[in-house]
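Input sequence (144 aa), recorded before submission:
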Amino acid sequence: MTTTAEKNMTLLRTAFQAVESGDLDTAQEMLTEDFVANVPGSPEPLHGREVWRLGAQDMLGAFPDLKIEVQDIFGVDDKVTVLLRFQGTHSGAFRQFEATGRQVSFRSIEVYRMEGDKIAEEWVAPDLIGLMQQISPAPVGATE
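Predicted structure, token format:
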């Protein structure tokens, strides 16, 4: 018999696979209508599936070959925590940085809350400093 935690972990793995393959429609359908995103830099939670989609589109636009590796995952009741490694090529603009063509790798610790068979809320803590260091221009006079 499959537990609720196992079902929730499977749902998240499926959602990550959909994002990795660029199928944002399928991934978005796995979210509740009133999905809540708790993201670094935002003083208040963000609401709605479209907010999530815009963030995913930004990542895939900048890193179209994005790979998402689940390094560790565990679930209890309606929550799942996951340690992810993202890897890809910086082929499009991301934040203030134009494409560099560099390979990047960064980690994120994420917690998700489920409602029924949908993802209702996320708390994400990506290593944005590490990512920005990888895509920022080299200091003047430095060689890559």
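Checked by second reader. The mean pLDDT is 94.
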